[in-house]
Amino acid sequence: MPSEPVSFVKHHKDGSLWARGQMLDGQMTGFWEWFRKDGTKLRSGWFENGEQCGEWTTFDKAGMPHKTTLIRPKAR
Prior knowledge:
Elements lengths: L5 E6 L5 E8 L2 E9 L5 E8 L2 E9 L5 E7 L5
Antiparallel strand pairs: 1-2, 2-3, 3-4, 4-5, 5-6
């Protein structure tokens, strides 16, 4: 029977949200977000089989989109 993704949350030492996403069989999967200690979004993007893929967005210190990068799957 296939595993189901489980929610994952990690916090900075001060208790603020650092990252959130999903894990599947010990690997990052689906959409993930990272945050600065002040709560603004730092980066977000997608994982497949534990590897970055698709569109990734980096945010400025005000939490506004700064740069978007397309990450292509690695050749196997």
